[in-house]
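Appendix B, record 7
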Amino acid sequence: MNDSTLDLKWNPDAVSVKGLSLSIGGKHLVENTNLELSKGQRICLLGRNGSGKSTLFNWLATKARHFNIWSSYLVEQELPPCRESALQMTLAADIERGQLWARRAEFEIKMEELGSDGCTEPLSDDEFKEYQAVCEELRARRADADEPVAAKILRGLGFSEEQMRRPLCELSGGWRARVALARGLFMKPQLLMLDEPTNHIDLAGAVWLSEFCKEWPTTLAVITHNAHFVGNVCSGIWDLKQKGVRSYKCSYNMYMKQLASDSLASASAWEKVEKQVAAWRSKGTPAASKLADDFLAKKAAEGIRKPDRGYAPRFLLAEHATTDSREKTSIISMADATAKYTADGPAVLRGVEFALYNGSRVSLVGANGAGKSTFLKMLTGELDPVEGVVQRKNGLRVAFFHQHFFHDLPQEMSAATYIRSEFEKTRKGTGINTTEEEVRKLLGTTGMESSTHTIDIRHLSGGQKARVYFAGIAASAPELLVLDEPSNHLDMETAQALLDALKAFPGAVVIVSHDLSFLEELDPDVWLCDGGKVEHLGHGDAALNKYIEDTLKEPEAVEPPARTPVREVAAAVPEEEAARKEAKRRAMLNKFFDSEKRKRLATRAKRLEEEEEGEAIL
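Structure tokens (predicted):
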């Protein structure tokens, strides 16, 4: 970018940016655009995959650190593995708090060591004053309440009491991403920036997060494809299109209405321009032609141009399907099915009774680790039950979209070649030929630009790979779609296109998704994975909302968690060494703060106060 043309003003109440241009690797993402962000706003940055949303967020975060007028925090990726627990790392996000705890610990350790030698003056007067000031600052910040607050945030994001005390090096990348999110929520910076915050959390966690952020006390900026989150949380929209950002100071629903209204107005205005231009050009004279050209230039300057066809991806699942949705036949049934990952391991699911029919819509809900992925693998045949029976319709064609789908794509093959191969596998023995036009059309309708059709899949972005995978699913003409978080790599428009395609798909759909709006519109039967069981909760909105209400219900009062030793927060300490030092610290503090020494400290404090009062009088 060229900062010489940039007008950036950052004050305590607002940020104003004029003339912003951004590019990566010679590709211009944003050109001469303006932004405004007021204190207390909650905005969502929308735009298609690859438009530059994350680049814009990183630029804004860099400028926030440079100006240092608003405290800021950008949550965009998982934390690296380390020995500290999830709870410790969440608390450690507040650096100033950690410094105060560490300083207090230094004084207390010094008092331990000097007091144990019988010294009556373990701290100098200046040190004692500083110790009192540190303690007072911690009391003013209500630091003792920080750990319960951090634990509540982690619980909301799906952590159990045991999980939040496990070292990060024992947690998967998805769980470490949740810790990174928890740190931002705990800090409450003046500007919190979240890049796809719901990607690693389940449905209940995503709803909890939206409720938490709805009452966010400072400024919030978020990138997300989760329509429920945007509708529930955001009070403004930044729409990144055609290398510019247009701001809407309204809710997501009003933004969508405004888009529809603007589209109609633009089409109507352009239609009038076209009629006038056509009338002049029909005269066939140079003078009339010049009038038409001048008129077009004038209207372009006024912002009236031929409407862009827009970005309207589609997934042709129904168009390539061979299933008749009117045939309500059973395609899969499970009877007393039990699943394990190893023969001598514990059962993940036990005694599952389930039936799936052609045309069914099923949403599978439950906490992470409750067995949802295991159930999906039993459906697809990837995992066989160790007990019980799973029966499938003969020749049942199943397509499985899972969170690691990119491993299934041939990385050295072009998108067009891959789609052709999927068509040919489905049509083998039918005598139906696959044309280049058919392949290109299928890719193009998913939002893939023609220039990406012939390059190796390994060079495509995550969103582009997801589109190619879904195009391959359409080409395979499945009877059953099994989808595990299918919208994670899709932008808002593409996620809506997928939803429309699923609603029109004549076969059966079983889905796991963290987007409540997506599921409500799909109107599925709801099944819960919990405690090794799979049970039917009901149908549609009522069942989904009942599940969320029950899941987010505040737990009954339990014993508060033991306070995290501050020295473990400040730096990594081997567990054995930390335990030894903590035991010594507590023993020495108990010895030091006996009744006699408490009186002596109180006398000293009173003497210091009297001296200060005397100095003030003088």
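Remarks on this record: The chain has a mean pLDDT of 81. The domain at 317-552 is CATH 3.40.50.300 (Rossmann fold).
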